[in-house]
Amino acid sequence: MRLEYPANVKIIRVPCTGKVDVMHLLRAVQKGADGVYCVGCLEGTCHYNEGNFRCRERVEHVRSLLEEVGLEADRVRMYNLSSGEGPTFAEYAKEMTEHIKGLGPNPLKKWVQN
Amino acid sequence: MHCPVTAVNQYNLNLDDRRAAYIEYPQAVPLAFAIDTDTCIGCGLCENMCIAKAVDYADKERETKVQVGSVILSSGSQGFDPSGLDFLGYGKYPNVVTSEEYERILSASGPYFGHLMRPLDREEPKSVAWLQCVGSRDANRSGNGYCSSVCCMYAIKEAMISKEHAHSELDCAIFNMDMRTFGKDYEKYYNRARYKDGVRFVKARVHTITEVPETGDLTVKYTDETGAMQEEIFSMVVLSVGLKIPETSVELAKRLGIELNQYNFVETDPLRPVESSRPGVYTCGVFQGPKDIPGSITEASAAACLAGADIAEARGKDIEKVEVPEEVDVAGQEPRIGVFVCNCGINIGGIVDVPDVQEYSGTLPYVVFTDSNLFTCSQDTQDKIKEMIIEHQLNRLVVASCSPKTHEPMFMETLEACGINKYLFEMANIRNQNSWIHSNNPDIATAKAKELVRMAVARAATLRPLNEKVVYINKRALVIGGGIAGMNASLGLARQGFNVVMVEKEAELGGFSRKLHHTIEGKDIQAYLKALISDVTAEDKIRVLTEAQIVGFEGFKGSFATQVLVNGEREKIEHGIIIVATGGDEYKPKEFLYGEDARVMTQVELTDRLEEKGAGDLSTVVMVQCVGSRNEENENCSRICCQSAIKNALHIKKLNPDAQVFVLYRDIRSYGMLEDYYTEARRQGVIFIRFDKDAPPEVESGSDGVVVTVKDHILQQNVEITADILTLSAGMTAADTDDLSGVMKLNRNPEGFFIEAHVKLRPVDMPSDGIFLCGAAHGPKLISESIAQAQAAAARAVTFLAKEAIRLSAITAKVDVDHCVKCLTCVRSCPFDVPTFNEEEKVIEINEAICHGCGVCAGVCPRQAIQLSFYEDDQLIAKIDALLEAA
Questions:
Q1: Domain region containing B51
Q2: What is the 3-state secondary structure (H, E, C) of B360-380?
């Protein structure tokens, strides 16, 4: 559909959002990502029954961890859509980007050693 | 993209525009451009722009002769065109749309990108009315006497989705004569819409629609159940148009010499549901008769079963064998990565600075070779890649081009052809995820392409060769159940050349159908059963075990072993697939004096009575529908009872035209062609009285008969009928499979019917591979539907049995037993019950043959002792780190 969405979104492919680990999300934040979000199937339509629910739980967990260490929980989010919803995907990418811009850069970035 | 012509987008039902050079819709197969010759002005721009020289203006339709052994007709349907029904105002009022148009309006790829808007002013509607049976159940105005079977469900679905999409409260009203939600679990959906989501269901056929000129709203006039005229105003009206056979299909049938019925559906015998009048020509889907997606898919496989049986000897003859060289062992080698950057014509190269990306990729760790190509997927590039792999001793390949969804298998094949393990491959999607979406900003696109390549190269370096397990297929099939479904499935398999063991728990074959006499069409079921049993017993390839019980089970797709107890002896049967056909039974009523008054009987018992004693002595018969169905105990509709009642009512009228027959019902669900029998029953004077679920008929034993009292909706008062016989349309229940489902670990729904892999898209597969399902074991259904599903199950099974061996995906979970603490979290979390605790070895085991590769267990493991191959933690983290290293 060639719908435009912000170039700062990069996709990492997993077989199911149920595979996404707390560790992966934290790693991204720790390494300086300004925001991380998981995009799963619509709730109730997971090909593997409930992977997206598990992902949502983990996202919630990571959000509480971030809060605990004084970072904005909302740097990590979960979105759901069906594979036929390209426009929604683009919309979420824009929404997330705008939202993260509002939060400003990841404060951990200055600690990241290259 | 460059085509200057704007054309009407027919896929979105003329609601928006597209170019004259176009892809029909995003999911089209093949996903290729076409030129709409009706609107193309022949400017030649696309031909000049196309670097691959894929546009051929001079291309003409060609006739090709193909020699085949059998033919399947599946030309489908079109929606009924309501333009001729002027009282509906379609074509005149912009906010009156057909259900097909409404589907596009709701679709994310539709004209309004999934935003709920009405065509006139692109405002969000506040209320939407659906009018059922437009072009169905209407012999007078549309000529279509049949029920289209699908409209009730799609109307409910559209109403539910609309409510979801709407930003404010949306009133949804569905005007119907009967709600026909007769499919498996459909009634639950209907109840949810009605009682939870507040969709209104109005029992009325709409009289006229007129527009309110100032607002574009629509006035809907109808007569309510008491006979009073009502008016309501809606923002939008959706016409639930029926299914119709297109004229082109009628012509096709004529050319092929196939008989059609009065409504232009293919004429079939109910006991041979997918066979046309011409031997060797089969049919499926709506051309066979109105039906929904699961029904169409089932019949498609059934047609494939019979078409395949005709040409079973030719199987595999025209398939070329591919020789794969022995795999090079790369273990312990330092990664040597080759990166191929694709221009994709101008798709990537026109935006991204490909030479720059190529040069950059050469600076990345472990990259020893880079190249760029016009089309990396072309055959000559594959040959070039092969040469480079060998010349530069590459042991990892990265292609920066398009989507792995479409192209990964092809590049993996190229690796295999060089003896490199196919899992040592990674793609960077610099087209779909980059050049296409950042086409306005080449600099950003080039920068992002570099990042994507960097991520891909980092992951490639961490990839490990993976072995795909090979399972040799045992060519024998196990069919559980010897009723009509089991026998048809067995014959389907045997006629395609496979050996079958058919296990029946009773002493005789036939199952529930042994209690039945005739189909509604008048087919003799016992004669059919007799012929079927003799076919099965005469077939050398089928071994029948009666009075047999399944007591043990192990294995996986292609290689099962089942213990069967016959005559007190255990026998182990090895087999490659399983077909479950355990059947159903008639519900034994607890209500309406059944078992207390001998004059109260079920429909099956009434049929017996009519066969034995006729109906000469009967002056009044009352039938009560939905006994044991659509209630608290069994929420679902039993699908077949409405036609059973109509069948017996017609039979009584035939035997004794003076007998009075009353059918007390909630919704008459005579779907498809069955509607004609409903119409005929009314014509013959059978009286149908609707009652509410909350006000069921009351029944008392009287000296002259059974006294039935019911509230008539039209008269608005109670009617008392004294009946010689009260017949209960008892629902269909699943056979008792408690033991079987325990032994074989097959999941059932709360009603006891087995669960299929996907309600809509895989209606005959069970969730575990290699296990298939048919007949009443799956849900209540007619004999014709059971036969089709049985043949379908056989066809699905043949897709396994026809292979010598299957290679399983290597993307499976693996347990590191040294670090596992046996907390059993994976055992509890797996959606497919794959991880098990081996009590002898005291370890968790994940059988790679049944692992689906979703990675849930890897995610939940608190010790990270489970890794999903190809998506291991270090492989994902490599990508994250590579992306953020410059952050």
A1: 1-67
A2: HHCCCCCEEEEEEECCCCCHH
